[in-house]
């Protein structure tokens, strides 16, 4: 097989981002059979350059829109409005070779390390199928070498892994095989959706370390979807905080976790049982304060009914995104004295925030 044209996969050297969400919304229900509509994602814009080998975490409670965001980027679902782009092309319109290129460039690691495997096949099966589908390796020996190298890259011993059935391996081993499967395809992006939520706590560090090693040694950017701020803090470079389908805070992970701006982010961080005997767990309270009435059908901030800093204006209109500090954006009226940040500049803040000091 002739060598692959990596220049073509890089988009010819231009500045076209690998993946992009442009004003994307996703609404479930509300049709003939259901009068109730659920807004899973609301007018979100996000760009993933593909040439910046960082780990970007997307965090939030269940129902915040994290998995919907991942599913849109992977092409599993289509947006209700807005556009998902792959190298500048509408993802929903990709066909043939272009679609196969996307499937190879953007790989997924899901939360369930059990559902991926067929119990009647040896674990080799999940590795050999993509090799055959994408025609990797000119011989059986080359394909075997690709599998061995990928397994070793995630800390597995091939002689103790290949030839076994899924039930003969631990959950952590199975999850690392899925990471190895993605690596064999030399992806441009790995979307890891809650990859450690279904494994024992003792294995989480091992799997996350494997992802971090892949990111640092092979320069593969990772979008890490999680509800766990603790793991996000330890493995990420930048972080996006979501609440009920919208981005409420974003920036450098150190800045966001150590100096959170949005009341929702503060609440999430306060829920983490940090090992500090002087700090009382759950010391931050939530709930509307200052006598502010928050109508059920208000058009304002999504967090208003739970926010201890709610103001009357919070129920009237969604707050814009403010540049609260260098490289730190927040959607909250508490920072209305700060410059606003246009939606299209949010992604730039997550990759080169040092030069972004004003809107």
Structural notes for this entry:
The protein is α/β, with parallel strands linked by helices and 359 residues long. The protein has two domains: 6-236, 3-Layer(aba) Sandwich (Rossmann fold); 242-355, P-loop containing nucleotide triphosphate hydrolases (Rossmann fold), CATH 3.40.50. It has helices at 6-9, 66-73, 96-105, 124-133, 140-153, 158-161, 171-184, 201-218, 229-235, 253-258, 263-270, 346-352; strands at residues 19-29, 37-48, 55-59, 81-86, 89-90, 106-109, 189-193, 222-226, 238-243, 246-252, 322-325, 328-330. The strands form two sheets. An eight-stranded mixed sheet has the order 6-7-8-3-9-10-12-11, with helices on both faces. The radius of gyration is 22 Å and the shape is globular. Mean pLDDT is 84; it is low at 1-13, 281-286 and 353-359.
